[in-house]
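Much of our argument rests on the idea that a fold can be written as discrete symbols. Part of our work consisted of pairing the sequence of a single chain with a tokenised description of its backbone. No coordinates are needed to read the tokens, only the vocabulary itself. The record that follows shows the chain in one-letter code together with its fold in token form.
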Amino acid sequence: MADATPGSGTGLPAAALWDMDGTLVDTEPYWIATEFELAERYGGTWSTEHALNLVGNDLLVSGRYIREHMGIEPSAEEIVELLLDGVVEKVRREVPWRPGARELLADLAAAGVPCALVTMSYRRFVEPILEGLPAGTFAALVTGDEVEHGKPHPAPYLTAAAALGVDPGDCVAIEDSATGVASAVAAGCRVLAVPHHVQVPAGPGHTSHDTLAGLDARGLWTLVGG
């Protein structure tokens, strides 16, 4: 357990800001399966390539993309709700945790590092996932239905840092997509990219690592240059 208060110069981040889909949980296959179900239900056409183009996006942006490229009648808002219905049902059957994610969350808690969840999914999708974690795991939640601007805009990460009362530059954001990384970098966070379903191109402002497995709070902060 850490013997210093988290923050600049302590060897620990002031906070850890977590993406959810593809980072904390591997729900992207659930979204993709539900998109194909939607195409079949409404007589549209879809592809895995289209599905992967949506990874990390704001849900309404995805809804508009699906309506255009799938060629179906429901509005973007209706598409989002239909997707959520299908994915929430799948998550309630089984939460597909990413390797090392829950262990890292536990070590951050033991070290006194507060965590926030920063996801473009809506709160009704987040809630069944939170039920599988200890109460209070996340001190703040930022969801796609509660912010005016979604990723890659910096607003979601700025909102999370403000909710925790910390400087974004003293935080580490954990992401799996280029869209999410762009959001966190623009907010001024230290960023760890752990790509999964899509590649995250090399670039300034973030560090890539192949897994969260085996990482503890201090190792996480060291990886991003803390």
Summary: DSSP finds nine helices and six strands in the chain. The chain has two domains: 15-26+97-223, 28-93.
